[in-house]
Structure formats: C-alpha cells, structure tokens
Design brief:
The chain is mostly helical and 143 residues long. The chain has a single domain, classed as Arc Repressor Mutant, subunit A, CATH 1.10.10. The protein contains six helices and three strands, in the order ααβααββαα. Strands 1-3-2 form a three-stranded antiparallel β-sheet. Strand 2 and strand 3 form a beta hairpin. Helix 1 runs antiparallel to helix 5 and helix 3 crosses helix 4. It is elongated, with a radius of gyration of 19 Å.
C-alpha cells in the first residue's frame, strides 16, 4: 500500500473515530448539561469567569441563548452570575464548587470510557500515539 493510499485510509479512520468519540463524550455531558449548557460549562472551566457576551461570541449563539442556558445552570447551582465591579451593566458567569465537582465526575466517566476504547492498545503504542498527537498539535499551532 502506497503512502497516499495509507494516508487516505488513516484519514477515513481518523474521522470515524473522532466522530464516535465526540458522540460518546457528548452523551456523557448531555445527561447533566443538555444543549448549550455543556459548552458553557466547558468554557468556564477552561478559561475561568467570562462575560456573558464573550460566551455568546465564543459559542456562536445569541446572548438570549446564553441567558436561557445559564439560568438553568444557576438554578441547579452549577454556576453563579455576578456584575462587573467597573461596569455594572456587564454580567460575568463563574463555576461554583458544585459545578467543578460535577465536571470532574463527568470527566472521570469520560476517561473511563476512553480506557475501554483504547484498552487493548499497548503502553508503547499509547506513548507513540501521544508523540504523534503532540506533533500534530504543534503543526496546527504553526498554521
């Protein structure tokens, strides 16, 4: 099998695996955080408190959609809303301890699922895959 043919097969399998893994992770999160809620939680975890307008821009959804989703998250105690000290018109959202704890539990469930998916792969192959993914990430950063 030539390089082009091998790369084509790799590309096909990569996209199949990516989609399947994405669906598995979404299913884990959707049980607790449906719709935009999971994406809001993820962004707040990754970057700390955010303005509602920043969340809307990052998620490519309307400010109204952020408000609706965040109201549910606030009601369940996963996030809190606070006003900016310099400009009271600006509203920020932040994870609560309950939100952090819940995300950690969901991530643990996701990691366990990944252990099942990749469980038959040897330690040396996992190390090689890690090296490959690091190189691919570096290449993306350079683009």
């Amino acid at each position: 099998m030539g390089r082009e043919s091998s790369f084509h097969e790799f590309e096909k399998l990569f996209w199949q695996l990516s989609r399947k893994m994405e669906h598995l992770w979404k299913d884990i999160y959707a049980k607790t955080f449906p719709g935009s809620q999971s994406r809001i939680m993820y962004l707040l975890e990754q970057s700390g408190p955010k303005k509602m307008s920043e969340l809307a821009g990052s998620l490519h959804i309307t400010a109204g959609a952020v408000t609706t989703a965040s109201n549910q998250l606030i009601e369940h105690g996963y996030i809190t809303r606070f006003r900016d000290k310099q400009d009271r018109r600006v509203v920020h959202l932040e994870l609560t301890e309950k939100g952090r704890t819940t995300l950690k539990a969901l991530q643990s469930e996701g990691r366990e699922m990944m252990r099942i998916v990749f469980g038959d792969i040897s330690d040396s192959d996992i190390k090689r895959l890690t090296t490959i993914f690091e190189q691919a990430s570096t290449n993306i950063e350079k683009m």
